[in-house]
Design brief:
The complex is a heterodimer of chains A (181) and B (125). Chain A is an all-alpha fold and 181 residues long. Helices cover 72% and strands 0% of the residues of chain A. Chain A contains nine helices and no strands. In chain A, α2 crosses α7 and α8 packs across α9. The chains are: A mainly alpha (181), B mainly alpha (125). The interface between A and B is large, with 44 and 32 residues.
């Protein structure tokens, strides 16, 4: 299963092969969960959004153009699922999140193993707009091109370049003291 | 990350690695995540297998029937109203049930008695 190409897995999934779909989910789970978390902050909600994205992609698989790369197509669906959840959450919550709670609130089991750098980065990311942090994560973490990110986020390529630039500058400012220490 | 890195249109490996670590889901949750997605596979496939038009048709059928019934009722009422005899002409409306009548009153050379005018106004037709 691991040696199969993406195209083969997609074709088998289209034919109703559940195991092939499982292999696709396994292949893209990490990426989808990170992208959803970049949008949502909260890891549990991000997993819900990533799951929504995978199942939505399964339903829409007939519309996928197999001549194009699968990753950006899937990430667009995941990012949209996460954005929808974020929008609904904003409706539910009249008050903005306390910055100290960003990240899903206290989670003693996981907080203990997170590095100081990780904490600072999450806090820094939380100060960026969802689109900006999603752009920088897609670019610097997931390795997508500006053009692919433009397609994923549905914005012009120039805007992606600007968002990545501003995100990097902001992250650099916020991390400067950590690096100096 | 230097200023050059900020303008660089290539991924920044240092920042990327740090962000990846910060956003990485908890250890050991990958398999669980794949499982929870697959648990919903059948339901998602089943939902996708029902054509949208079938859903819309099932939803709309009772409403279409109700709309047809209402339209039929309205048609019947309008048709009945149009077929009713038109016996309420202006002449009959102004015709008095008793007395000289409105035309005689307004064309008379002598002013009518007040009781006649009052009676022509209040008498039921």
């Amino acid at each position: 299963m691991g040696s199969e190409t993406e195209g083969e897995l997609v074709a088998r999934t289209r034919a109703g092969d559940k195991a092939a779909f499982g292999a696709l989910v396994d292949r893209y789970a990490g990426q989808a969960r990170r992208v959803a978390r970049a949008v949502l902050d909260d890891p549990d909600e991000a997993d819900d959004a990533a799951q929504d994205g995978f199942l939505s992609a399964l339903v829409k698989l007939d519309r996928y153009d197999a001549r194009r790369p699968f990753g950006p197509w899937l990430m667009r669906i995941v990012a949209n699922a996460a954005t929808d959840r974020r929008r609904r959450r904003r409706v539910r919550r009249a008050e903005p999140l306390d910055p100290g709670l960003v990240g899903g609130g206290p989670r003693p089991d996981t907080e203990a193993v997170r590095s100081e750098l990780g904490d600072r980065l999450r806090a820094a990311l939380a100060e960026l707009s969802p689109r900006r942090r999603t752009a920088v994560v897609l670019f610097d973490v997931e390795g997508y091109s500006h053009a692919e990110i433009a397609e994923i986020l549905g914005i012009p390529e120039g805007t992606v370049r600007s968002e990545v630039f501003h995100a990097r500058r902001r992250l650099r400012t916020l991390l400067a003291d950590w690096k100096g220490a | 990350m230097t200023d050059e890195r900020m303008f660089d249109h290539r991924p920044d490996p240092e920042l990327g690695a740090a962000l990846r670590q910060a956003l990485e889901p908890r250890d050991g949750t990958q398999a669980a995540f794949v499982d929870r997605v697959l648990v919903r596979y059948d339901a998602a496939q089943a939902a996708a297998g029902v054509p949208t038009w079938d859903v819309l048709a099932a939803w709309a059928r009772p409403r279409v029937a109700a709309a047809v019934a209402v339209a039929a009722l309205c048609g019947f009422l309008v048709g009945r109203a149009l077929q009713a005899p038109d016996d309420a002409s202006f002449d009959t409306a102004f015709e008095p049930t008793s007395g000289p009548g409105l035309a005689a009153l307004v064309t008379a050379s002598a002013p009518p008695d007040a009781s006649v005018v009052f009676a022509s106004l209040v008498e039921p037709r």
